[in-house]
Amino acid sequence: MKLEYITPGMGDPRGKPKVYLSCHPDDFDPSVNLLAQDILRHAACAVWYDAEPAAPWDEEELLACLGGVQLMAFAVTSRFLRQPNRARDVELRFALRRHIPILPILLEAGLERAFNETCAEVQLVNRYVSDPTATPYEEVLDTFLKSVLIGDETARKVRDAFDAYVFLSYRKKDRRHAQRLMHLIHENPQFRDIAVWYDEYLVPGEDFNDAIRVAFDKSGLFALAVTPNLLEPDNYVMQVEYPLALARRENEKNLEIVPVEMYEPALGDARTDQVALRHSYDRMPELEDEHDRPRLDKALADALGRIARKENDGSAQHRFFIGLAYLSGIDVEVDCARALSLITSAAEDEKPCFDATAKLVDMYTMGEGVARSVKTAVQWQKKLVAQYRAEYEKGHSPDEHLGLGTKTFRALMKLSDLQRELGDLKTAAASAREALNLGGGLVEEVGAREVERDMAVVCNRLGALYRTLGEPDTAADFHARAMGICSRLAAEMGTARARRDLSICQERVGDMHRLRKEDDRAEAFYSKAYGIRRELAGNGVNPAARRDLSAILTKLGDVRKAQHDYEGAATRYAEAMELDRVLAEEQKNEQAWDDYAVSLAKLGDIRRTQCEYHEALELHLKAVEIFSRNAEKTGSLRYRRNLASGLEKLAKSWNACGGRESAETCFREAIALREGLLADSPTHSTRHELATTCFLCGDFNRDADMMRRALRLWDELCAERPEYRKYADSARRMLSKLM
Length: 739
Fold this sequence. Notes:
Layout: E1 3-6, E2 18-22, H1 28-40, E3 46-50, H2 59-66, E4 71-76, H3 78-82, H4 86-98, E5 102-106, H5 112-118, E6 125-126, H6 137-148, H7 152-161, E7 164-169, H8 175-187, E8 194-197, H9 209-218, E9 221-226, H10 236-251, E10 256-261, H11 274-280, E11 288-289, H12 293-305, H13 316-328, H14 336-347, H15 354-366, H16 374-392, H17 404-421, H18 425-439, H19 443-446, H20 448-468, H21 472-493, H22 496-515, H23 519-536, H24 543-562, H25 566-587, H26 590-609, H27 613-634, H28 637-656, H29 660-680, H30 684-701, H31 704-720, H32 725-738
Parallel strand pairs: 2-3, 2-4, 4-5, 5-6, 7-8, 7-9, 9-10, 10-11
Antiparallel strand pairs: 1-3
Helix pairs in contact: 7-13, 13-14, 14-15, 15-16, 16-17, 17-18, 18-20, 20-21, 21-22, 22-23, 23-24, 24-25, 25-26, 26-27, 26-28, 27-28, 28-29, 29-30, 30-31, 31-32
């Protein structure tokens, strides 16, 4: 392995949360630096990675490096999911076993289901979100990282909570012995709140003298892991670390030295020659034996008793900070069981630490240090809501309650989100309504504008929930309420954020009208959103604003198509297509090219409807070329599916232009693709799509056998899902005509 790191400004990685970033070897060049910079924009951490992911590697070394990380991030592509690779098969599995949080970042759309089925049921982050109404990538990433990684200020508080510091000195080749000695120290409950500093990461070529001196300054005990490797001449411990410790003990009288012989007989470890040790290390104290625990514990207790140890109050807040230390490995070893016990006790205290309760929610949501359980996260989130509410209702003055109303409001919103993730939509809606009722009273705490924006967010969430619950009228009412709020805010503030929020509300209201088949009213709201987005994208600088504009243009085209205004639809699709073309050429990623190809295909469909057959053919040929390139490059299910759909459209255009043989070839290629998709992902959707392609091919060729195949597939689906009956009936009627 060639372990390297990236930090803000390429500063020292020591003391920063450790993130390990991995991917399929073929995705290394386009992914690692890109995602590392994404992460560093939101977290002051060190992003580590193997600079030679395709080279031979040692599993023991790899797992030793991974054991101390707080988060493992993965670039998820079709290659990652479909081809054997170390990132998926070793590193991801290790993270799941050890309950290390994982951050899968999708570099291709449409891989969520495949990841959840083949890897893990966890939250995924899509880097290329094209839906303007979805939470932006940067916001999702920021929320995730803040839920897992500990910031600088919290880390400082954690370090301040320790009673004392131990400097652990060892040869780098004795890493396992150093880790064992740290565990031996902390196995004794009386040493639980003692921090242990040791050089966990060795970065080639960097001078660590300054870092070591800082660690010495705050340490009261120098623990030395003794093995025969200490006797090798001119090693760093012999030349630098031990002389520093000895000088401070002799001159300043505020450092204790405890050498501990480390060896494991079962592994064949050699014992250290004590005579040679004393010859090489001047005034070496009496050597302790790691296997004589009573004597070792007494030596450590005596040494720690002679140094100035801070007194702690044993409060819930103190236990929470020490629990965070063991959870994240801040100057102690990672010990998830101890962390869970400490943080839980802090959350359940008579005077609970609210931060501890909130951390338990994140731990169970992310699978950080515990098995992931959204159900358990919901239970803790309910407790957090109750804790905040009880404190908020004590009647504090605005200057005293420390934002408890806002905290209660946001806790209710998070509870609603978790309940929705569990599939409990009615309860999720009830929690969101509770937040809505509370939010209106927070004007003095956060200001009228912020309250109004929060109310709009809640209303839109409720609209989405009630739409999913099959209550479109209630959903429409909430979306309309959100739109009214955002309209006022946009008029008062005029900021880009406020105007974009308004355009999203207008789009959602338009969606509700489309759901009701009220296309004229839908178009009116889409047009309002279009006007705002055209202004926001006006200077052509912001890619996200141009994607938003393309999305609303496509919906306007869909409405015109439904109204049989094909020229109007073509105009809108053409505008969207041009925006997507420029974005694809700028961003040069598969998702952007896919968006462009979809726009090409949509415009091609309209031109064929208008009998502009040769123009339709040209557009569909371009779309299929892009779909094919994406599918070949990535192997993605999504891109292969889009290619199959593009081939079907191309077949129709070839046929309209008199190219019957080319059309038949396209249909056959589409069927082969659909068969491969069904084999790789045997779902209702892939079976239905294969049946549809067989139906189209059977109709085109007047092929009764192909039509029978479509009918068989739909009949099988009908046995499980009655909604496919109409397709089976169509195939049956068509087969009757062919016969």
